[in-house]
């Protein structure tokens, strides 16, 4: 696949660049460029990002950063079996537990919420940083919902992190998940409160909490352009009808 001229490969993180030093220089440059394309495209064009990740994987499958990037790209395109395999490979190579919540979520994607819950109770979770532990809590709550256990999902999300007034990178998503679970359980008043709290924390628009809050408040967003077009159509229909009546009058 083509690589834009402005991509040099130097854009990758220093740690990844160090990993690629085990490769011949030209090969390392090619792999780096493909990894840059994965990072550029994964949010907006995940299928293209996936294609670039497969090229990088073909070139350097023994590099942990490449396996991890391939896992993220597969995950973004809902290829959960592939993602899980790549995350497992990356974990074996690095020995770290950072990918544990994503691996558990892949189990959910494969229709195995019980396995995700088993992973949520594994010793590896205690080795995660705070962000990773919150992510694991979100996955576990999702697994509970997959199993129809709404009340258990709500309890799973109740934590010091949820109750805290400080805003962290995970705060908006945690509050949103809690609000959504409350709403699914029919607790609309509490859900509205937590969607509002999610909006307060969502500084970069990572959730649609504001839209959900508006829906609960009964706010309807009208398409102004569509409304104008509808009015134009109505006016045209009125004119046509009036013209038909006038023609009838003239015939008389």
From TrEMBL:
Gene3D superfamilies: Tetratricopeptide repeat domain (1.25.40.10)
Chain positions covered by the region annotation Disordered: 219-252
Record field: compositional bias (Basic and acidic residues): 236-252
SUPFAM superfamilies assigned: TPR-like
Signal peptide limits: none
Compositionally biased spans, kind Acidic residues: 219-235
Domain of life: Bacteria
Protein name per UniProt: Tetratricopeptide repeat protein
Protein species of origin: Streptomyces sp. R17
């Amino acid at each position: 696949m083509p690589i834009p001229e402005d991509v040099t490969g130097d854009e990758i993180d220093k740690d990844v660049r160090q990993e690629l030093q085990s490769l011949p220089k030209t090969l390392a440059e090619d792999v780096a460029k493909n990894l840059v394309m994965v990072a550029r495209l994964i949010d907006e064009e995940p299928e293209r990002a996936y294609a670039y990740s497969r090229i990088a994987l073909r070139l350097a499958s023994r590099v942990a950063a490449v396996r991890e990037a391939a896992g993220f790209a597969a995950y973004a395109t809902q290829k959960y079996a592939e993602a899980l395999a790549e995350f497992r490979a990356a974990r074996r190579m690095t020995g770290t537990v950072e990918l544990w919540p994503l691996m558990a979520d892949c189990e959910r994607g494969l229709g195995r919420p019980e396995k995700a819950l088993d992973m949520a109770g594994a010793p590896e979770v205690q080795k995660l940083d705070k962000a990773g532990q919150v992510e694991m809590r979100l996955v576990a709550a999702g697994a509970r919902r997959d199993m129809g256990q709404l009340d258990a999902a709500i309890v799973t999300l109740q934590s010091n992190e949820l109750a805290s007034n400080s805003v962290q990178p995970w705060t908006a998503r945690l509050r949103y998940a809690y609000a959504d679970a409350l709403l699914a359980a029919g607790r609309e008043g509490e859900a509205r409160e937590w969607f509002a709290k999610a909006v307060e924390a969502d500084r970069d628009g990572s959730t649609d909490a504001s839209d959900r809050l508006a829906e609960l408040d009964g706010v309807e967003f009208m398409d102004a352009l569509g409304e104008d077009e509808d009015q134009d159509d109505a006016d045209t229909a009125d004119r046509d009808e009036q013209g038909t009546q006038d023609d009838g009058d003239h015939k008389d």
